[in-house]
């Protein structure tokens, strides 16, 4: 039996979830026989393979993100870096930076390495490293948490 043709709505829904281009979404759906879960896993694998080739890239761009608790007694800073200023200004990068600052404030990580190992506060099924990898795959650049700080008034 022939495989069903890939519909535009399937491509659009996969793109909404993963942030990949049309052709990449179509290729993943074709290779997975229109199974969205398998297609998502394929895209993650391909993304990770592409990122592995970027490990030697410098991350000299980025931004410092701050979070201050509503009572003003708790705050955090996160220096998130990437390869280009273009990505630093992207919505995905901005959202990630804010999420990381919230994570540092709430979860008391003391170093970037410890932060990466933590379960993500909004979705305990993934680590902070997983969250960063997902965004890195979407923006197609190496991302790094360069520094973190947390301050609290008793």
Detailed description of the structure:
The strands form 2 sheets. A 3-stranded antiparallel beta sheet has the order 1-2-5. It is elongated and about 60 Å long. The protein is α+β, with helices and mostly antiparallel strands and 154 residues long. The longest helix has 17 residues, at 36-52. The chain has 7 helices and 5 strands; from the N terminus they run αααββαααββαβ. Helix 2 crosses helix 3 and helix 3 packs across helix 7. A hairpin with a 2-residue loop joins strand 3 and strand 4 (123-127).
Shape: elongated
Indicate the proportion of strand residues.
15-25%
Main sheet record = 3 strands, antiparallel
Q: Which series of helices and strands comes N to C?
A: HHHEEHHHEEHE
Distance between the termini: 68 Å
What is the gist of this entry?
The chain is α+β, with helices and mostly antiparallel strands and about 150 residues long. Helices cover about 50% and strands about 20% of the residues.
What order do the helices and strands come in, and which of them pair?
Layout: H1 8-18, H2 22-31, H3 36-52, E1 61-68, E2 74-82, H4 85-88, H5 91-107, H6 112-117, E3 119-120, E4 123-127, H7 128-139, E5 144-152
Antiparallel strand pairs: 1-2, 2-5, 3-4
Helix pairs in contact: 1-2, 1-3, 2-3, 3-7, 5-7
